[in-house]
Specification:
The structure holds three protein chains of three kinds. The model of chain A has no long low-confidence stretch (mean pLDDT 88). By secondary structure, chain A is mainly alpha-helical. Chain A has six helices and no strands. The radius of gyration of chain A is 19 Å and the shape is elongated. Chain B is an all-alpha fold. The longest helix of chain B is centred in the last third of the chain and has 31 residues, at 78-108. Chain C is mainly α. Chain C has a domain at 36-87. Chain C contains four helices and no strands. Chain C has helices at residues 2-20, 39-50, 55-63, 65-86. The longest helix of chain C has 22 residues, at 65-86. Classes of the chains: A mainly alpha, B mainly alpha, C mainly alpha. The interface between A and C is medium-sized, with 40 and 30 residues.
């Protein structure tokens, strides 16, 4: 049972807030090196922007921008980026998840290569956290029958 | 006795929150309220762990560039790191528990524990 | 009856924990055992070794990166488990 909320103030405010939420989540992710933040926090804020759309409008609004197929793809992509960043170190005969092996690819010293390696894995973490939070929310709210809810709301 | 009362009073708050969550898990009949009790229990443990790492006169664990870092100036970053993992595991547990509640409701039509046990035994 | 028993057990457990609080260190003590062993090394060496001023991020992603990788896979498994439990495909409505 998913109701349609028809309030003008809620819809207008959420429509204004969603792009700022997404830019803020990217800001929190990028500034994870020098101030509190990082991958998990940015991923939760980005998921909150999609959930705000689903709550204020229809479920279909969130799904039109972030389909089920893309959701499942992003779930796997984040873990793949994380493990892949660690596995590249194995190619250069370093330890697994030792980011200073990236100095053979990037033009940086061993210390700054660890800096960039941390940024790469935080990207993977952010993508996975965002996709899984949106997926769990949509599954719980529609009780699994996502296509049936969309059909019913279009009639 | 006076030192016990004045110095360690913050630990009493954590213990009170643990007991609230514990009572909720044991005594309530509705499955949703049991789940909320488990959640309160878990968050109070996370709060207690983070409070271990505080230091008197310490600041955020973001090292100021340009000077050598002394460990007594910054609070302990290790409990914060471990509790990030604990928070994520808590979210995963709560999500799956809610999915199980949806399936139970779909099958039995109620979320009260004694009615479900009676319906299972038939 | 159930509630009275639960209340008694809860109060008993609370009193036991309160008795154990006596052994805890002072709140905010820099010399307590949690602040002494390996975390001063993390705070002092985070800028020379990794170039990241934020000690929490460098410990989470570099010194303890293995734990974070498995935690990411834990949240991925939770998403898959909820999908498996709840989603019903179109063709077979029971």
């Amino acid at each position: 049972m998913v109701r349609n909320l028809d309030d003008l103030i809620v819809r207008t405010c959420s429509r204004i807030m969603v792009p700022f939420l997404q830019i803020y989540s990217l800001y929190v992710y990028v500034h994870g090196h020098t101030s509190p933040g990082g991958g998990f926090q940015g991923g939760c804020i980005m998921a909150a922007s999609f959930i705000l759309l689903a709550v204020a409008y229809d479920i279909g609004e969130a799904k039109r921008r972030f389909s089920e197929r893309l959701n499942a793809l992003f779930c796997c992509l984040g873990v793949f980026i994380y493990a892949g960043t660690g596995a590249v170190s194995l190619i250069f005969s370093d330890n697994f998840l030792d980011y200073s092996a990236w100095r053979h690819i990037l033009p940086a010293g061993p210390v700054m290569a660890r800096y960039y390696g941390i940024a790469m894995i935080e990207l993977g973490v952010e993508i996975t956290v965002m996709a899984v939070m949106v997926s769990i929310f949509l599954d719980l709210v529609t009780a699994g029958e996502q296509e049936a809810v969309l059909e019913r709301n279009h009639d | 006795m006076i030192e016990y009362l004045l110095v360690k009073h913050s630990y009493w708050f954590y213990i009170a929150m643990i007991m609230v969550g514990f009572y909720g898990m044991m005594a309530k009949n509705n499955l949703m309220k049991k789940l909320i009790g488990m959640n309160i229990f878990q968050w109070s443990i996370i709060l207690y762990y983070i409070s271990i790492g505080s230091k008197k006169g310490g600041t955020l664990p973001v090292v100021i560039t340009g000077q050598a870092a002394r460990a007594a100036d910054y609070i302990n970053p290790l409990p914060h790191v471990l509790m990030l993992t604990a928070i994520v595991v808590g979210v995963a547990t709560t999500g799956i528990a809610l999915a199980l509640l949806v399936i139970l409701y779909r099958k039995y039509g109620t979320l009260e524990e004694d009615e479900i046990i009676k319906a299972i035994k038939q | 009856m159930n509630r009275l028993l639960s209340l008694c057990i809860t109060v008993l457990a609370g009193l036991l924990l309160l008795y154990g609080v006596e052994e805890f260190p002072r709140w905010g003590d820099p010399q307590q055992p949690a602040n002494v062993h390996v975390s001063p090394r993390y705070i002092e060496k985070t800028l020379p070794e990794t170039g990241v001023p934020n000690a929490v991020t460098s410990v989470l992603a570099d010194y303890r990166g293995y734990d974070t990788m498995f935690e990411t896979s834990v949240i991925f498994t939770a998403g898959v488990a909820v999908m498996m439990l709840l989603r019903r495909s179109r063709g077979k409505k029971s």
